[in-house]
């Protein structure tokens, strides 16, 4: 029988040449090899995915000497990039492309703990800004807000003292509504509750914003609607957890789902950083406001490949945006406390 999600077991956390690089940049041909294999092979989809995973593993092993050389070089330069992973749901039932089983999740965390400094998003941002980082570094995040994460995954991370940033879609949380992408698959899965978020926050999890209703912000041009989805969602969340929200993540998070106006809105509102989801390294001394993230794929071969300096990820095109220090006039929203319809700790959230 399936256990009901609970946060009762959460405990507070205690607290060598350019020629070589150019040669491996040509490794993008691997994508074409994989594509050709998938198109021409008569095998089943499961067989093809196993072939794909084998090719990725083989590619990582073949390029391991270059990766080790590059890591040594970056350590000497103080330029080891920061990796950020995002997950959605950890559970053993209703498996889908955004769910990883508990066993595979623990397998990934075990590997990450052995090979990386696992840091908070704030520490990751600090290392990017510092201009010097000599240690492989990863930060772990979650998107959406699934109740199943409170059964095993989050309690395990808290016990191990591993920092987590947890991005949630406020309307689904407050109204306890399944996410549209789950309804479309006829699998309406339970979301976190406000009480769960408060317990997670008290245990040391950083609760962060992921809009009100999980829309494609790249397709929205109306400034009032953007403001309501982004800033309105942030204010709702601050009222719900009684803490300042410091980070925001775009739903879907690909290039086409980003919106320059949202970067400006978050910047003007005092958000520390905005996260996308299209992969790539976060270079030391680079942009620390827009943080790139890799998908926490259920197949550990992909995680190992991406996070051990995959040369194909070195030159991922960054979304282009500019920020202005001048504050534009923004729409006035109705009282947030009237919108969320829940009891909050106080009328005004405490700001850290």
The share of residues in extended strands comes to 5-15%
Total number of beta strands: 11
Total domain count? 2
Mean pLDDT: 84
Find the CATH topology of the largest domain.
TIM Barrel
Radius of gyration from CA coordinates: 21 Å
Structure in words:
41% of the residues lie in helices and 11% in strands. It is α/β, with parallel strands linked by helices and 352 residues long. It folds into two domains: 16-62; 80-340, Glycoside hydrolase/deacetylase (TIM Barrel, Alpha-Beta Barrel). Helix 2 runs antiparallel to helix 3 and helix 3 runs parallel beside helix 13 (300-307). The radius of gyration is 21 Å and the shape is globular. It starts with 17 loop residues before the first helix and ends in a 12-residue tail after the last helix. The model is unreliable at 11-28 and 327-352 (pLDDT under 50).
Search tags:
2 domains, TIM Barrel, 352 residues, disordered C terminus, 3-stranded parallel β-sheet, alpha/beta
Question: Care to give the gist of this entry?
Answer:
The chain is of the alpha/beta class and 352 residues long. The protein has helices spanning 18-25, 29-40, 45-62, 64-77, 102-115, 121-130, 153-160, 170-175, 180-184, 194-202, 223-241, 260-268, 300-307, 336-340, and strands spanning 82-87, 89-90, 99-100, 117-119, 137-142, 164-168, 206-209, 247-249, 273-275, 290-291, 294-295. It contains 14 helices and 11 strands.
């Amino acid at each position: 029988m399936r256990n009901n999600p609970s946060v009762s077991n959460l405990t507070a956390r205690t607290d060598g040449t350019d020629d070589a690089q150019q040669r491996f940049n040509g490794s993008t041909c691997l994508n074409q090899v994989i594509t050709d294999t998938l198109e021409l092979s008569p095998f089943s989809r499961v067989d093809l995915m196993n072939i794909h995973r084998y090719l990725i593993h083989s590619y990582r092993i073949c390029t391991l000497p270059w990766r080790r050389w590059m890591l040594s070089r970056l350590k000497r330069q103080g330029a080891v990039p920061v990796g950020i992973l995002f997950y959605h749901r950890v559970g053993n039932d209703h498996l889908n492309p955004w769910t990883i089983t508990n066993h595979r999740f623990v397998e990934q965390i075990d590997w990450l703990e052995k090979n990386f400094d696992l840091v908070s998003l704030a520490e990751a941002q600090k290392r990017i800004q510092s201009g010097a980082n000599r240690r492989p570094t990863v930060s772990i995040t979650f998107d959406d807000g699934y109740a199943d994460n409170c059964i095993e995954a989050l309690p395990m991370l808290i016990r191990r003292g591993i920092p987590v940033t947890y991005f949630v879609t406020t309307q689904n949380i407050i109204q306890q509504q399944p996410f549209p992408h789950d309804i479309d698959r006829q699998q309406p899965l339970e979301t976190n509750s406000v009480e769960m978020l408060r317990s997670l926050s008290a245990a040391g999890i950083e609760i962060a914003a992921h809009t009100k209703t999980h829309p494609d912000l790249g397709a929205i041009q109306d400034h009032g609607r953007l403001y309501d989805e982004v800033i309105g969602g942030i204010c709702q969340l601050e009222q719900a957890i009684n803490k300042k929200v410091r980070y925001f993540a775009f739903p879907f998070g690909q290039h086409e789902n980003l919106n320059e106006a949202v970067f400006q809105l978050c910047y003007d509102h005092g958000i520390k950083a905005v996260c996308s989801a299209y992969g790539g390294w976060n270079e030391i001394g680079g942009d620390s406001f827009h943080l790139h993230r890799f998908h926490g794929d259920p197949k550990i071969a992909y995680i190992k490949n991406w996070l051990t300096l995959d040369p194909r990820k070195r030159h991922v095109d960054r979304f282009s945006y500019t920020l202005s220090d001048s504050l534009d006039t923004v729409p006035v929203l109705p009282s947030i406390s009237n919108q969320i319809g829940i009891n909050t700790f106080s009328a005004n959230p405490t700001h850290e």
